Amino acid sequence: MTDVILTLIARGGYLGIALLMALENVFPPIPSEVIMGLGGMAVGRGDMAFVPLVLAGTIGTVAGNYPWYWLGRRFGYQGLKPFVDRWGRWLTMEWEDVERITRFFHDRGGWVVFVFRFMPTFRTLVSLPAGMGRMPHWRFILATAAGATIWNCVLAGAGVVLDRNFGMLDRYVGPLAIALMVAGVGFYLYRVATWKPRGQR
């Protein structure tokens, strides 16, 4: 099973990695840990190279985060509220979540964009307050790219190590990757189906 997944990743190439990483930031159930981890295993097998893999993953991460930054910058704090109120079910968040992370962002400054690249969920959500706070484009892109580069290196490196030193686990990696993706999609659909604003819970 792992061979099949790695073959698909190798055929998709670096463009495929970039697209998957961009989607990961738009459609959260696609985990970057699986994408870059399997990419690292492809590096270990000689099907990909480490630096281009990380570069593609970073480009995809920046591309996937920029629409959220643009929405925050375009509509501003109050202008974004109707959007979140309307689409909160599909985003599985509500305005209170945006307010909380916005306060955190303003209290601690732009470095939060860099640090949050290492945290699930928040690494995408933090792009909204960065835009609403009108963080300069170049600083947002630089902070996002820097944090994403480090995180992608860690994930890809883990994949390389796994492939080189733990070949006996190969039979489990593919099913585990599929299980994680299915679980992620299932959890997202469950949240969409059961999501209610806090005031209605």
TrEMBL record:
Spans traversing the lipid bilayer: 12-30, 50-71, 140-160, 172-193
VTT domain: residues covered: 30-159
Swiss-Prot/TrEMBL keywords: Cell membrane, Membrane, Transmembrane, Transmembrane helix
Subcellular location: Cell membrane
Chief location bin: membrane
Membrane topology: Multi-pass membrane protein
Entry-linked Pfam families: VTT_dom (PF09335)
Name listed for the protein in its UniProt record: Membrane protein DedA, SNARE-associated domain
Species: Sphingomonas rubra
